[in-house]
């Protein structure tokens, strides 16, 4: 019999890749979708006929209890979050409600329904925040630097706590930044690849960014969802860092992305203080030795390949949009 998985955040970047992966593995896939006035399924439209959509919201306990009862999943992947660090300063309470308390609501929904399900929590390298040591491992102390990171830290520890208190199979994946052509447009890599594409097609002549010196350990989202699945296939629940082990500045990402379109980034990129953050995470660099050894996981797409893949995809997307506007 095929396994059943419930993915919260299925309409997001990672949710869409994970749903594809689980379908390939013959899972019966359920996806939690919240009610919105506009349809938000563009990333999963191509697989909508293969998955089961269930309606609920991370802020609404009763909906999660009902959804859990309806799906009776073997595995639950909690990817839902207010995931944009920048917005977490303007919406700190909402971010806490979805990204922190939402995790407890989901764990409670499992408990209340007495399900024997495995649970994956999408923890984040943002929890490391202010640099304590590099590279960052599962043992590095946390020092969150945004309401988002504080909320994720709560989600991380409540997952550990339910594992230890109730013997739940609950894992946290401490994932470093991962990107793709499906990345939300407000995140820096996609903002750059979209900007490059629009400049390439003559639709804009500059790109405004914030801190170009920030360093991130960027990987490909398609590689990272495999690590999520692997964590739930182990004998024992545990927490793992998932990262490439390389760090690059935003400036370097600009260089490669513009170069991919035959453009010189210095002619177009302008620093705009509006995109600076009240508190910055200067440097993230992950050590995923534990995941590599225990899960046999490793990233396949390099930093350069990732930037080029995103630019190529956005150049094609902008071109399609221009053509459809002319029709
Ligand atoms: P996205 O922002 O692309 O997706 C977030 C998902 O959460 C969307 O499906 C969104 O739905 C859903 N969501 C938001 N609020 C609610 C709510 N109240 N109820 C139900 N669903 C909700 O994030 P990613 O795919 O990039 O990331 C997945 C998870 O991994 C997130 O938890 C993120 O914080 C975490 N993470 C991401 C990393 C990365 O580099 N991408 C790194 C480390 C952790 P809708 O479409 O309706 O908005
Ligand atoms: P991050 O991703 O905050 O690391 O969180 P983001 O791409 O937003 O920022 C990365 C770095 O780039 C700098 N930056 C800019 N960022 C944005 N968004 N826009 C700009 O114009 C800009 N200019 C410079 C930022 O200051 C920052 O240093 C992502 C999210 O996916 C989280 O949900 C996840 O937990 C972490 O990655 C790991």
TrEMBL record:
InterPro entries, sorted: GDP_Man_deHydtase (IPR006368), NAD(P)-bd_dom (IPR016040), NAD(P)-bd_dom_sf (IPR036291)
Pfam family membership, one: GDP_Man_Dehyd
A GO molecular function held by the record: GDP-mannose 4,6-dehydratase activity
Enzyme Commission number: 4.2.1.47
Superkingdom field: Archaea
Alphabetical UniProt keywords: Lyase, NADP
All copies of domain NAD(P)-binding, residue ranges: 6-310
GO biological process entries: 'de novo' GDP-L-fucose biosynthetic process
Functional summary from the UniProt entry: Catalyzes the conversion of GDP-D-mannose to GDP-4-dehydro-6-deoxy-D-mannose.
HAMAP family: GDP_Man_dehydratase (MF_00955)
UniProt similarity note: Belongs to the NAD(P)-dependent epimerase/dehydratase family. GDP-mannose 4,6-dehydratase subfamily.
Name the record gives this protein: GDP-mannose 4,6-dehydratase
Species annotation: Methanooceanicella nereidis
């Amino acid at each position: 019999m095929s396994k059943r998985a419930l993915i919260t955040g299925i309409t997001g970047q990672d949710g869409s890749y994970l749903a594809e992966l689980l379908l390939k593995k013959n899972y019966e896939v359920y996806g939690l979708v919240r009610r919105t006035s506009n349809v938000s399924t563009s990333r999963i439209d191509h697989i909508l006929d293969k998955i089961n959509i269930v309606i609920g919201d991370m802020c609404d306990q009763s909906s999660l209890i009902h959804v859990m009862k309806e799906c009776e999943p073997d595995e639950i992947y909690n990817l839902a979050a207010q995931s944009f660090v920048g917005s977490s300063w303007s919406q700190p309470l909402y971010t806490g409600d979805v990204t922190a308390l939402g995790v407890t609501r989901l764990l409670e929904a499992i408990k209340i329904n007495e399900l024997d399900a495995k649970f994956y929590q999408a923890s984040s390298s943002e929890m490391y925040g202010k640099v304590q040591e590099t590279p960052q491992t599962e043992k590095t102390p946390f020092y969150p630097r945004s309401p988002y990171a504080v909320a994720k830290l709560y989600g991380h520890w409540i997952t550990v706590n339910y594992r230890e208190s109730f013997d739940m199979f609950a894992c946290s994946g401490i994932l470093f930044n991962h990107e793709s052509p499906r990345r939300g447009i407000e995140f820096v890599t996609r903002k750059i690849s979209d900007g490059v594409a629009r400049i390439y097609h003559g639709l804009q002549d500059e790109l405004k960014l914030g801190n170009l010196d920030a360093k991130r350990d960027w990987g490909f989202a398609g590689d990272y969802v495999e690590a999520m699945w692997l964590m739930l296939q182990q004998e024992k629940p545990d927490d793992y860092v998932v990262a490439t082990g390389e760090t690059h500045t935003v400036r370097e990402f600009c260089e490669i992305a513009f170069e991919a379109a035959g453009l010189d980034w210095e002619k177009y990129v302008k620093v705009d203080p509006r995109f600076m953050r009240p508190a910055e995470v200067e440097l993230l660099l992950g050590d995923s030795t534990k995941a590599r050894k225990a899960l046999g996981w490793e990233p396949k797409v390099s930093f350069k390949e990732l930037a080029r893949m995103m630019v190529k995809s956005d150049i094609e997307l902008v071109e399609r949009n221009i053509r459809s506007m002319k029709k």
